[in-house]
């Protein structure tokens, strides 16, 4: 696996909430993940795919390159962000690509300092009402921060924890006889996400897993939420994530790893005219091999 010279996990913020996670639930989730991934190449293959996704984000956005990002490169990134696929073409029509690129520049400028992580993510959506057409924008910002700096920023998306809805991975891992009735007093904040990552990091280390912990953690959380979709998902979720025999299907979709047709390079991202966006040349061979 990759990971040489990489830090293990995100450090929790000060005044972090106490998260009461269930060890048995975590262990069952990990065992199921390992078993489910085996027929399609094993867990290493999925961790490698996340490493390559991160490499793509870094190649396009880090070291000041966000200001020079082209629209094609932007669409390449969005193809790997599941909630952005259906909405991004409409957003480009609404505000123009230059506006979106400027938001990326502001999001990443000074992002080595995580003390303003929540404000930084919120500011990405400034000027928009977070209605059905725009509520995915904070998730896009969260993916950009995480996959450009996986050791610094946890993945802060709604499916991991949405305090307003009281749903997400955090609830599925909570220590309670009936997690649906548990009261979880944790905000949707950097401190909560970072603490969750630290807890999962400690669990994985206890299971003998030491490398690529940010990506292994992503994979474990996605698999936990995939189980929620399979077991208790409502009508909308089942329509969005149709049940299939492949036990890793929903896990891949949560992380955007189902983005590319491995033969054609066409992605699940639809352009305004209804055609599929085709992934650019940057890293396509490697990404096709793993996704």
Structure description:
With 291 residues, the protein is mainly alpha-helical. It has one domain (23-290). The protein contains 13 helices and two strands, in the order ααααααααααααββα. The protein has helices at residues 23-37, 43-61, 71-79, 88-95, 97-108, 117-123, 137-148, 169-172, 190-206, 213-232, 235-240, 249-254, 284-290; strands spanning 266-270, 276-278. A two-stranded antiparallel ribbon has the order 1-2. Strand 1 and strand 2 form a beta hairpin. The protein is globular and about 50 Å long. It starts with 22 loop residues before the first helix and ends with a helix. Mean pLDDT is 87; it is low at 1-6 and 234-243.
Structure summarized in a few sentences:
The chain is mostly helical and 291 residues long.
Give structural attributes:
291 residues; mainly alpha; two-stranded antiparallel sheet; 13 helices; 2 strands; globular; disordered N terminus
Instruction: Kindly name the structural category.
Output: mainly alpha
Q: How much of the sequence is in beta strands?
A: under 5%
Give the number of helices.
13
Mean pLDDT equals 87
Cα distance, first to last residue? 16 Å
What spatial order of strands do you see in the largest sheet? 1-2
How is this fold's topology laid out?
Blueprint: H1 23-37, H2 43-61, H3 71-79, H4 88-95, H5 97-108, H6 117-123, H7 137-148, H8 169-172, H9 190-206, H10 213-232, H11 235-240, H12 249-254, E1 266-270, E2 276-278, H13 284-290
Antiparallel strand pairs: 1-2
Helix pairs in contact: 2-7, 4-5
């Amino acid at each position: 696996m990759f990971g040489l010279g990489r830090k293990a996990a995100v450090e929790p913020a000060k005044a972090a909430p106490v998260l009461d996670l269930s060890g048995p639930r975590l262990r069952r989730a990990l065992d199921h993940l390992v078993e489910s991934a085996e027929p399609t190449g094993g867990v290493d293959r999925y961790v490698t795919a996340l490493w390559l996704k991160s490499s793509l984000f870094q190649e396009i956005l880090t070291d000041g390159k966000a200001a020079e990002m082209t629209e094609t490169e932007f669409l390449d990134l969005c193809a790997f962000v599941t909630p952005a696929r259906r909405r991004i073409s409409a957003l480009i029509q609404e505000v123009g690509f230059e506006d979106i690129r400027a938001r990326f520049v502001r999001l990443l400028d000074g992002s080595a300092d995580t003390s303003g992580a929540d404000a930084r993510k919120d500011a990405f959506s400034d000027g928009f009402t977070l209605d059905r057409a725009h509520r995915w924008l904070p998730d896009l910002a969260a993916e950009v921060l995480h996959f450009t700096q996986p050791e610094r920023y946890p993945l802060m998306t709604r499916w991991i924890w949405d305090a307003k809805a009281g749903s997400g991975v955090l609830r599925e891992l909570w220590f309670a006889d009936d997690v649906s009735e548990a009261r979880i007093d944790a905000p949707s904040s950097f401190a909560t996400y970072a603490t969750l990552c630290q807890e999962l990091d400690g669990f994985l280390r206890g299971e003998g897993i030491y490398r690529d912990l940010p990506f292994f953690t992503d994979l474990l959380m996605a698999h936990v939420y995939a189980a929620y979709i399979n077991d208790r998902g409502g009508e909308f979720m089942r329509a969005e994530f149709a049940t299939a025999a492949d036990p890793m299907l929903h896990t891949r979709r949560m992380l955007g790893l189902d983005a590319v047709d491995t033969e054609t390079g066409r992605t699940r991202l639809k352009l305004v005219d209804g055609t599929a966006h085709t992934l650019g040349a940057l890293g396509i061979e490697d990404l096709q091999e793993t996704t």
